[in-house]
Each structure stands twice: as C-alpha cells, then as structure tokens.
C-alpha cells in the first residue's frame, strides 16, 4: 500500500472537529487534566490508528480514554487498558516492548495496527449513536488503505463489534445477515467479491472492569491474539 496515504489519513483524522460534544469534552479534559498528569501537555485531539501501514492484523477498540489516548495521542497508550493490551502483544511477539507510555517511547508493533471506530474520547466512555456513525467514514478509509495486506481483525468488546461491522461492509467485505453476534472467541469469515477475505475475531474488551474481575485474563487475551495472528498469516507468535 501507499504508506503516505495512511499518514495523510492520520493527519486528517487528527484535525477532525465533526462532533461538537466530543470536541468540547476532549479539549476540556486536556485543559483541566488529572492531577497525576498536571505536567503533561495533553493531546486533546482525535487519536489516529497506530501501527505499520502494511499491517496484516487490525485490532479495533472502542474509543480513546480521556486521560489515556486523549493525553498521549496514541491508541491505548497511558491507561490500564493499554497496559494490558500492549503487555499481551509483547508476550506473543507482536510488539517490541511490553509498555506503551507515550508517543515517543519507541514502541513498534509487528504486523499489527490498533485503531477504533470512534477517534475522540467520549464522556463516560460512551459515544452517542450519532457520534459513532459520524466517525465511521474514517474507519472505512483506513480499512480501504489497509486492504492490500490486512487479513484479520480482532474487535475488543461488543460496542466496537457493532460499530465495526457496518464499516467492514462499506469497505467491501460481505457481512452475513443477520449480523454475527459478538462473543469472546467469536470467529467469522468475511468474504470479499474482489479480493481476499477477512477473519474477524471477537474478544472481551481490555477494560479494567473485565481485567480486574478476571472476565478477561492475560492468557485469554494472549490466546485470541495468537489465533488472530495465525489467521492473519503473521509469523507464529510465541
Ligand atoms: S469522533 Fe470521529 S468524527 Fe467525531 S470529531 Fe472525533 S474524529 Fe471527528
């Protein structure tokens, strides 16, 4: 693919102001900050996807966290959810280091890109249906740019699943009707009339609610990552 195409897309996403409520919230959070991060200059803008332009596996979350991605400018970076996700990616050999602390920390992902259907941090982590729909075209464009290489997608949580299915359909993959239900470990193959299909996997979200309660354990996450990476044709994970 054309790497500069994805770079350009990321720049355009970072400048988006289409959702008034989310623009106000992300900027308000960036001004007021959390006491623990008082010396940070928050990003306070939409957070683009993170990872190489020729990724074979796409991980799709929900939306950036107010003091995580909205602070650091990188997906899943600077919060507990990200700690769990990047640790697992490192453990299975898909990341160069076990932590993701800030956008300049040198972390590299191997064949994996992380994105979300909503690029701005929403109040209470809950975008409205209108905000979700407004942001979908960004994910469709990202899918179109990744199409030459992407072979599997791992969606974290039911909201991301619901938001991502229409984006896959708009990007040209065939989504079965009725739409497949989300479940941890769900695996659906989306065909494409004019190219390779896509293996779609579901995984419980890496939220604290799931990881603190043991609903999603590190081994469960590693296992689904290994399966998705294998389906994507990535070198055998650890
Ligand atoms: S949520 Fe998406 S569409 Fe809405 S302002 Fe942010 S980047 Fe733009």
UniProtKB/TrEMBL annotation:
Molecular functions (GO terms): 4 iron, 4 sulfur cluster binding; DNA-deoxyinosine glycosylase activity; metal ion binding; uracil DNA N-glycosylase activity
Keyword tags: 4Fe-4S, DNA damage, DNA repair, Hydrolase, Iron, Iron-sulfur, Metal-binding
SUPFAM superfamilies, per database record: Uracil-DNA glycosylase-like
CDD domains for this protein: UDG-F5_TTUDGB_like
Gene3D superfamilies per UniProt: Uracil-DNA glycosylase-like domain
Protein's UniProt keywords contain Transit peptide: no
InterPro entries assigned: UDG_Type-4/5, UdgB-like, Uracil-DNA_glycosylase-like, Uracil-DNA_glycosylase-like_sf
Family matches, as Pfam families: UDG
Domain Uracil-DNA glycosylase-like: 48-225
Similarity annotation: Belongs to the uracil-DNA glycosylase (UDG) superfamily. Type 5 (UDGb) family.
UniProt-recorded name of the protein: Type-5 uracil-DNA glycosylase
Taxonomic path: Bacteria, Bacillati, Actinomycetota, Actinomycetes, Kitasatosporales
